[in-house]
Write a structure and sequence with these properties.
With 291 residues, this protein is α/β, with parallel strands linked by helices. It has three domains: 5-89, Winged helix-like DNA-binding domain superfamily/Winged helix DNA-binding domain (Arc Repressor Mutant, subunit A), CATH 1.10.10; 91-163 and 270-288, D-Maltodextrin-Binding Protein, domain 2 (3-Layer(aba) Sandwich); 167-266, D-Maltodextrin-Binding Protein, domain 2 (3-Layer(aba) Sandwich), CATH 3.40.190. Helices cover 39% and strands 26% of the residues. It has helices spanning 5-17, 20-27, 31-45, 61-90, 105-117, 135-138, 202-208, 228-236, 246-251, 281-288, and strands spanning 50-52, 57-59, 93-100, 121-128, 144-148, 156-165, 167-172, 183-184, 192-196, 220-225, 242-245, 257-263, 268-275. A five-stranded mixed β-sheet has the order 4-3-5-13-6. Helix 5 (105-117) links the parallel strand 3 and strand 4. Helix 1 crosses helix 3. The longest helix is centred in the first third of the chain and has 30 residues, at 61-90. The mean pLDDT is 92. Belongs to the LysR transcriptional regulatory family.
């Protein structure tokens, strides 16, 4: 049986006013229309909700029971509608998202889903320097960034973490480990890892090019680069090896470089990051598509 919200609203107002004339005024209806709505609701329920005489209007026992149940349900319905209205009104304008390297399929799907659901908000994406994951945020060039973890600055909020992949070691085809099917982190003792230069925090650069194995053996710090392509060129020239996540390795295949699965280091992962205290409905809505 379909519900008529207008009938419910009429019942709630009449239960407060207990007067058909005042109820009609509040609802901008005629008294006859109020009576019609009430009679329709009573037929739908199957019993009288009000006792009506020439002198008074009062709730029946059925009406009192119905009112007790209806009030919280109607209030909840109003909240649902209001939340949807606020959501639709707030997610608008332009949302600027930065990302390091190439946009993965997960990022592109999130962008497409967000744009379909929020047609009043235009989403713009831009590439960030690989060696400067948070600079665009601090210069307010973007509203949020998809960056390679870890992120540990107090002024940034780390949102949903996604795209977890095992690490691989990228080496030249001539490297001593190139023919291996897998490598343990302790076997990097004495090896040289190419590192990232630039403004990225020291802890972040250390995570991408560790100087020790988990057991504490020394790993040499090699030349520093600003981009992945610079790093791949140095690998091909036998200047060192490089930690690269499994998905990045698959998307950057070169005939003169091989990637070997690496165990013993944490998986690579991406996260959506934004400035602390500046979360917006648009950022929250986009984050939902990355969760």
């Amino acid at each position: 049986m379909a519900l008529d919200v207008r009938e419910l609203e009429c019942f709630l107002v009449l239960s407060e006013e207990l007067h058909f004339g005042r109820t009609a005024e509040r609802l901008y209806l005629s008294q006859s229309r109020v009576s019609q709505l009430l009679q329709s609701l009573e037929r739908r329920i199957g019993g009288p909700l009000f006792e009506r005489t020439s002198r008074r209007v009062a709730l029946t026992p059925l009406g009192k029971e119905f009112l007790t149940s209806l009030r919280p349900a109607y209030a909840a319905l109003e909240r649902v509608v209001e939340n949807a209205r606020q959501y639709a009104a707030a997610v608008k304008g332009t949302l600027r998202i930065g990302f390091q390297g190439a946009a993965s399929d997960e990022i592109l799907r999130a962008v497409s889903a967000f744009q379909s659901r929020n047609p009043n908000c235009l989403i713009n994406v831009c590439e960030l320097p690989l060696n400067d994951p948070s600079g665009g945020l601090r210069r307010r060039m973007i509203d949020a960034a998809v960056v390679l973890l870890p992120v540990a600055e107090d002024d940034l909020v780390v949102g949903p973490v996604f795209s977890r992949h095992p690490q691989t070691l990228a080496v030249s085809q001539r490297h001593r480990l190139a023919a291996r099917t897998s490598i343990d982190a302790e076997e990097l003792a004495g090896e040289t890892l190419i590192a990232y230069s630039g403004p990225a925090p020291g802890y972040w650069r250390q995570a991408q090019a560790p100087t020790q194995t988990p057991a504490g053996a020394l790993i040499h710090r090699g030349p520093e680069v600003a981009t992945l392509q610079e790093g791949l060129s140095l690998i091909a020239a036998d200047r060192g090896a490089m930690l690269i996540c499994e998905s990045t390795a698959a998307n950057n295949h070169r005939a003169d470089i091989t990637t070997v699965p690496l165990t013993g280091f944490p998986d690579s992962a991406l996260a959506l990051v934004w400035r602390r205290g500046e979360e917006t409905p648009s950022i929250r809505a986009f984050a939902e598509h990355l969760s």
